[in-house]
Design goal:
Structural class: mainly beta
Mean pLDDT: 86
Organism: Pseudomonas laurentiana
Pfam family, one: DUF1425
CATH architecture: Sandwich
InterPro entries: DUF1425 (IPR010824), YcfL-like_sf (IPR038483)
Protein name: YcfL family protein
Helix content: 10-25%
Number of helices: 1
Keywords: Signal
Order of helices and strands: HEEEEEEE
Strand content: 35-45%
Radius of gyration: 19 Å
Number of strands: 7
Strand order of the largest sheet: 1-7-4-5
Amino acid sequence: MRIKLLAALTVALLAGCATPPPPAPGSAASKVVVMGKLKNIEVGPMRVARENGFLTVKVSLNNTSSSNKAMFYRFAWLGNDGFPVADEEGWKTLTLYGSQSSILPAIAPVTQATDFRLEVQSQ
């Protein structure tokens, strides 16, 4: 009886430790790379469009905490082959106040950009 209980407990623990599946290609989650930690900040839906030949992005952000959070971010602009087509951006800072939602806008610096990656981290 103890062996069956131990086996059932082991299976339950292993099932709880399974890694989540990777995000679907092309989804908003697949565009975000967390560098370090991202605590109490949710990256939500993204809007992507091409305006005057430049790729534009608007990212929805939400502070799930009641305290202010500083977030650091940068965009990597990619071409059809998935490689960068522009110089690497420097890190930018954004303060999200307690329970605040915000939109983060960005425009690619070159017309060759067809995709992007958003790199984020918080304190």
